[in-house]
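S1.2 Input.
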Amino acid sequence: MKCVFLIFFMNFLPLYAGKSLRRDGSYPKTFEDIKNEIAGYTDIAKAIIDLAVHGKAQNRSYERLAVFADTIGPRLSGMKNLDAAIKYMFSALREDRLENVHLEPVKVPHWERGEEFAMMLEPRNHSIAILGLGSSVGTPPEGITAEVIVVASFDELHKRAQEAKGKIVVYNEPFISYGETVRYRSQGAVEAAKVGAVASLIRSIASFSIHSPHTGWQNYQPGVPQIPTACISVEDAEMMSRMSLRGIKIIVHLKMGAKTYPDAPSFNTVAEIVGSKYPEQIVLVSGHLDSWDVGQGAMDDGGGAFISWEALSLIKDLGLHPKRTLRLVLWTGEEQGGIGAEQYYQLHKENISNFDIVMESDEGTFQPSGLGFTGSAKAREIVKEIMTLLQPINVTDVFDNADGTDIDYWMRDGVPGASLRDDLSKYFWFHHSQGDTMTVQDPNQMNLCAAVWTVVSYVIADMEEMLPR
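S1.3 Output.
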């Protein structure tokens, strides 16, 4: 009998040579096992796609967003509109019968632009369209009247530093990409102040313009004088540049009532579908609820917030019960640099080992092309396999690096991250401007984005194993 057992054991052993047992006595899955497991979700993925794109949930995320955006409007940190938006979503998520709907308190910056205008006085009278930049100081009550110096880069400003003293610096930097060009918005006032300028006006960070300024946050630097700063339209920046190159003297009057108040109370808004087997493990989907104080914040980031809500709604509607908890977080204070998300991270980072993946949609909800992903090579291969489930809508690509101010804290600590990738060709036409309204949104494209977001988040939440780090 001992011989029979030994022969059996020797034949069995090669199957697991070099493999270590898990704590529960099972063996690690091979990638082939994982591929087969993911293939088993084909019918569920099709059901999600059918419901989101063709079924009763068709256009639901768009219609929900339209009511929200039309009712609430823009939602800057510290504004009553943002408070109203959070209360609105808290009620809506409870009405949707999601679990553990609650608010997590945070502190956010409170800045208001007040009354603002700019007028070119020489060589002719011309009203300049402006939007003050977030955290800017105001002008004196009487405003500032000064000659303009136009530069195309920081290098040019530094070379002409002696000319800039006592003047208003106008930056006419060309748009290369948002990541490359946004430094003029964030650092323009500081660099101008270093050479003695009294204010700075920055060409909007936009790839296309119809005479509309685009706002955004800017940063002062300790030890450098704080001067008023605003963005102007591409058209006005280019006009003043042409005038300057002709040797024409330009004088502008600028008045800004911008003011910073003490930090205000706000909330991250949270809802869940609690996991059926591993409820302590989290798949997080998110978008930010705050916006700038212009337009409706429909694109940035109403669309991302509402497809994240839609993911939980679709899973609930289909009666699915993922093994892990699917958690929706609607961030506050993103536009000032992920303020609400940073406080959420500090509150929950002690459980970081239980966060399977963090997902954020904050680059529009236009025609989707796939996912940006940050994580280990093994995790990337699994995500690539999951994306094959989206072949029915031809959205299967996995790109390098997830983008998301609110999820960066987690990704830096090794948690896998994902962001929606979509057609950005028109995103910066409307970004941070009066043009960010529901007119930008397309219900069919939002349906597709919701399908992608739901399939990916559900499958990751339901697979037997967490993504490898």
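S1.4 Remarks. The radius of gyration is 26 Å.
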